[in-house]
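Request: Could I get any protein with tokenized structure?
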Amino acid sequence: CLLHRHGATRAGAAPIPADDPELIAASREVRGHALTLSLLGRYLRLAHGGDIRQRDQVDFAKANEATGGHAFRVVAAYEHWLAAGGEQGARCLSALRLLGLFDRPASAGALSALRTAPPIRGLTEPLFERPKGMLGRFKRRTDPIAETDWRITLSQLAEAGLIEPPGDSGALDAHPLVREHLAESLKTRDPDAWREGHRRLYAWLKGCVPHRPDGLDGLQPLYQAVAHGCLAGLRQETFDEVYDDRILRGTGNDGFYSWRKLGAFGANLGAVTCFFAEPWRRPAPELSEPDQAWLLNETAIQLRALGRLAEALEPMRAGAELYVRQEEWQYAARVYSNLSELQLSLGRVAEAVADARHAVEHADRSGDAFLRMVSRTTLADALHQQGETREALDAFAEAERLQAEWQPQYPLLYSLPGFKYGDLLLAGAEQAAWLGADDAGTGVDPDRVGVCDAVARRAGQMLEVAERHLGLLNIALDHLTLARCALYADRLQGRPPGPETRELSEHALDRLRAARDQMYIPRGLLTRAWLRHALGMPDAARADLDEAQRIAARGGMALHLADCALTRARLFQDRAALAEARRLIEKHGYGRRLPELEDAEATAATWPQPNP
């Protein structure tokens, strides 16, 4: 029994065995919660000589085991016991309460910042020496206790099981339930001390790294600073000085460092959560109205990249509508463009077209050359997926004209707009390549092969720009375009994918994974599945299809699910998958795939009948 092992070994003066009914009853009272039993056993040993009958000193009656309430009651009992333990008890209690300021192990540097003079009233005063002399009690404490006394204090807390034994690094940790109780207790008991403690940590974390540190590891202290700054009540300052300026490195075309360059969507989502009063619905009122609207869109981008598309929809639409009310046309154009892409991924094709038209309207009102270009590529892509090929080509051509006017040194669409245009330009070659795979007798179409070569040249130029100026996702998508061009050309010419095609496909998928944007990884997997099947690797092709389908299903990515079904049907002559592809394509208005679906259904007439 955990109670017996950790010190509850007596009932009054009498020793008891590990299977004593009192111990079993105590275990049942807390539903066998391991942390609670461990803490309770130690508490009874230290405070009551191990007497199990004294467990009634801990009030479990109102505890909620689902939220760690039983453990909270034991920690509260420890707090009362330490508070009555004189000067050393006060030191232990003060050191323990510091951990309520952390959601992770407390580093030695962070603890040192909290133990630096002046003391935090109501929190760290016992960790400072009392001034000597007759009037010492009336003077402020300014000198921290000696390191020896600090280590003794920590060893006593570790003996009680309240903290983990300190390691060589000087970091301290406690069970998450212990930290949770300490945090709630401090916040309720002394909110001023709570805020000042977090302010100290915010200031220390901001100052312990270069202004704009490199890499995800370098950014970690700044992510922590965001959390502590918000808890200190400094949300606007933290938003401006830490998140915007130092983590994102600004929000212009060369900004958004943490997620464009590093793919740090999860870390960013954790940071932006701190700026909400109610995630992801209500930004904190301390933020300015423009920042609130921006925050809604930024949060939606992180959610979308993490594959949480349905969750992203509400904050993104709320942000778009707020910008329109504020007549911030540039921002409204950006967010409606993002919203259209999100709607498209969810299979809401008609809604995606409508939102893209709003993006074009707002971009034109703003007069911003970049936004006028990019909003038209968003509209063109939505029209392409809807099956409106002619209108999509016209919109892309108009966008490329605007691109050449805006940046004459880069006359071709690049980045995500360039990838979308390449996807449309390759659509005919893709359809013909599938026919070539289905029918070995199909002759080579030099025009289609020429399209593959032309798009590959465009992608090569785009890749040069991406590698010099853009982020991981842009580089990955250019590699994917090159891989598709090579694969389609191979299939059109009736040959298996060569080494270059295989290498391009692997590079594309590796870079898509590195970019960590779940919306795009299925595209790379579907391309590689086709390639692997063409190389006589059906099991590997199935594995790629299965992974793509898992990602798409988890994120509600309806168009990817349709592509998975259609690809599975064609590669494995799967009639059930073909029927599912038709259902999804018709349900979501995915007109782009209708010609390919009809080709597959015509070819399916030659597939062998399944065994009864």
DSSP finds 29 helices and four strands in the chain.
